[in-house]
Hints:
The chain is an alpha+beta fold. The chain has 2 domains: about 1-250, Thrombin, subunit H, CATH 2.40.10.120; about 255-345, Pdz3 Domain (Roll). It has helices at about 5-15, 40-55, 70-75, 245-250, 280-285, 305-310, 340-345; strands at about 55-65, 75-85, 90-95, 100-105, 115-120, 125-130, 155-160, 165-180, 185-190, 200-205, 210-220, 230-235, 260, 265-270, 270-275, 295, 300, 320-325, 330-335, 340. A 6-stranded antiparallel barrel has the order 1-2-3-6-5-4. Strands 7-8-9-12-11-10 form a 6-stranded antiparallel β-barrel. A 4-stranded antiparallel β-sheet has the order 17-16-18-19. A hairpin with a 5-residue loop joins strand 4 (about 100-105) and strand 5. The longest helix has 16 residues, at about 40-55. The protein starts with a helix and ends in a 7-residue tail after the last helix. About 45% of the residues are buried.
Amino acid sequence: MKFRLPRLLTLLLALAAAPLLALAAAPLLASTSAPAPAAGSELESQSRALERAASAVVGIQSLALPDARSNNTLGRVRQGSGVVIGHDGLVLTIGYLILEADQVQLLLDDGRHLPARVVAYDLDTGFGLLQALAPLNIAPAPLGRSGQVAAEDGLLIVSGEPSGQLSAARMVSRRPFAGYWEYRIDGALFTSPPRTDHSGAGLFNPRGELVGIGSLVVANALGDDQPRHPGNMFVPTDLLRPILGEMRRTGASAASRRAWLGINCVEQGGQVRVVRVNDDSPAERAGLRVGDRIAAIDGTPVMSLDTLWTQLWRGAPEREVALEVERNGALQTLNVNAVDRHRQLRRPSGV
């Protein structure tokens, strides 16, 4: 993945004109007129900043433990990207790539494949940290302020080897995100057009600063109450700043020690229904089934994923959780013995 200056100059012009890109038949968001592209040396300086940022993106290939629970949904062999953020070879990525990993390789532009060890996996944010076990000789990407990204700002998405792609995009919305798995974050960045090589990809502002890490493709980047438009969700780097030191010291933030049921749910029309029950999970042992509608948790009515997950995490990680569920038109209460998800993860011997 070699990024040459003329190509980045072209992309920089695309970033500057992002509000005018025809990403949809109608405007996605109201925006101000496009800023005039920088001229001469300023344009070249910004292009070089983006070139340095893109060079900090590496490929990641991981092999999970044979008995990892996550293999059922993520597969044992996983591939994506990460971004070098430390002079010591620290790499930031999306956590599911390295969840319960046994072996991890960093794939570099020069063809090298270097081993890395897992430093942290943070359930709360979804971030993962890797440490290269050999010198990378790669300048780290600076962290930007994702909260300062405006809807009219152009952005650059970069993935790592072996495919190594970069493209211009723009942020179309910023909002909390609640996933069908037991996950929720504030300030998620939604971009368009979508990229399929999103896992761990770097999202950069025009100054070459990292503002997000790619998590998934979404059917509607604008939100459920807006016209359908596909895009990507990026985890904002603002979530990393307060916990980076803690992740390096302990392997996760304190907020990652929380209750886990082992279910996937979808939200539709003010109802939350179970679409998957993990094998050998608290939910399975309690008798929860696919198709059950979760009407309440610990007495709190549930009409959204946001409510379900936030209420689940309010109490101690290991406790009895009362779920009121509707099944075949009848309500019943199931008592689920939630567990601390972080303690359930498989780890290589000696880790």
